[in-house]
Specification:
- The chain is of the alpha+beta class.
- The chain has a single domain, classed as Double Stranded RNA Binding Domain (2-Layer Sandwich).
- A 3-stranded antiparallel sheet has the order 1-2-3.
């Protein structure tokens, strides 16, 4: 199985500098780790634990459909604020 992971730098002051969120959209899970590799490792660990829990309760494991990520630049809302 493969799951997409969206990595996002944490800049809100809730964690020390250098931490990143790792979002797994297909499973609706989020974790964090130090550095990009730390966030990816945390995501992998979380996915394994999550799947084990689902299997222990005889629940189905979602299979990810095609995933696409894009950025949308918003400028006009910022100019009117």
């Amino acid at each position: 199985m493969e799951y997409s992971v969206l990595i996002e730098k944490i800049d809100d002051g809730s964690l020390p500098d250098g931490y990143y969120y790792a979002h797994i959209p297909a499973l609706d899970l989020t974790t964090h780790g130090q550095g990009i590799e730390g966030a990816k490792t945390a995501a992998e660990d979380l996915i394994y634990i999550w799947i084990e829990e689902k299997l222990a309760h005889s629940e189905s494991i979602p299979v990810e459909a095609d995933s696409y990520y894009s950025k949308i630049k918003i400028t006009h809302a910022l100019q009117s604020a």
